[in-house]
Amino acid sequence: MGEDDTNGAPVPGEPKATGYSWYVLSVLVVVYILNFIDRQVISILAVDIKADLGLTDADMGFLGGAAFAVFYALFGIPLGRLADNWSRVKLLSVGLALWSTMTALSGFARNQVSLSFARMGVGVGEATASPTAYSLISDYFPKRQRATALAIYSSGLYLGGGVSLFIGALIVKAWNEGFPGGGPLGLVGWQAAFLAVGIPGLIVALWVSTLREPVRGAMDGVASPSSPTPFREFVRDLSTIVPPFTLVGAAQRGAAAFAINIGFAVAIAGFAWWMIKLTGNFPQWTAVGLGYYAVFSWACTLRARDPATFRLIWGTPAFICTTLGYGMVSLAAYAIAFWSAPYAETVLHLPKQELAFILGANGALAGFVGVIVGGRVADHLRTRNPAGRILMIIFGVVAPVIPIWIGYTTENGTLFYAMNFLAGMFGAAALGAAAATTQDLVLPRMRGTATAAFFLGTTLVGLSFGPYMVGQISDLAGTMVDGKPVGDLRTGILSLIGVAPIALCLLLYAYRAVPDAEATIAERAAGDPA
Description:
The protein is an all-alpha fold. It is built from 24 helices and 2 strands. The protein has helices at residues 19-53, 57-64, 66-85, 88-106, 112-126, 129-140, 143-178, 189-198, 200-208, 230-239, 245-252, 255-279, 282-305, 307-312, 317-346, 352-384, 388-398, 401-407, 413-428, 431-440, 447-477, 489-494, 500-519, 521-525, and strands at residues 479-481, 484-486.
């Protein structure tokens, strides 16, 4: 019956997770907490940043979304491949040091441009986190425990996101009270908050460097040697996503590949130009256009260089539909995570300190409970049905709809907090299931790359568009007050419900396709259409 029998018990002789496995997992959770503190602290600072820099809701949606997400997603591709070929511990240490430094530098931003570049740097550094962590976890835990382990790791997302609100509000309040006219170097509260949350990551990076590198593929009994030239592979992969080198790479593959690449570039540029004209938001659509063109170029290159990996990722509808289906869940989750605090502050007029504490605790507890319980239930469903985990992702799509509707139409603060908790918990239940499903659909040597591809869905679909979509719709639905535009965040957030039917269709297809896709991994990797 293999390693997953009907009661989920371990098979005699199967590798087991050790005490050190759980220690490594605990360190990775700390890293992920810092990851999301640095990523999400901008949410509680949004109202202050918007006022100081004279920005719109759509501008803030860009800073909270695409400015970070596009670079996070794109560099996740070559860094995911580097995680497959080099020391994952060293890569994670370097990445943590980089994103912590860029978070601290965000505190010196004086305008949208400088803050955007700092957020891009945070995205590049954080792109090392999940490819390395997912791959490490998969080599420290057997398949029967993998969704649970990944769910525990993913709890750092919610703990970090929740803590970021509380810490950010606390620092802003203390700094502005201590330095009402601006502190050293003229820094104000929101700038001090970026510095305060960024610097500790440099210390944790040293801790991460002490972890042991596990044998790659040991838990699956599949020898997966690393590349003898990991950095040569990394530079080559990096060149496939950075224009204009993408054109050179396409030309090297032949005239047809070059023409296809040019054609797609023209098409995506035309789409971006049309959206810029329609919305007036140049940074958002330039970043999105660059991101989608670069991903297309990378996918074409992967098809030529590593056809087996291409077939198991881009050539597998079950993988694509699972990723995009969960990407829609993450679109709503990222949007609410970013906008719930500004909404509570500006629409419900709740005090910043109160909403930061309650929303932070809500987000941390809801996410932690949801992702852990969801992971456990997903693993249980997997023992009974090869596609059982997809049911948990579907739950994450459907269950939050009513809480979102109630929470963002009520004027009662207590009911708002309660519904926000339920929406967060239900949505979080899908993450472990989605992550484990995509890991199970590839060979061990491909896990870092598969993780990067999975996070393309959660970033280029979810994070790039979730916060921005809410902000843009808020601006469009807003009114003028005293000659200044005031957005309608309620309408913006409620628009998120519209993505649920799209996600449901994708996941219903994945539910039917996953069993066959998982059963034919070896044949399809070898090029056998069976």
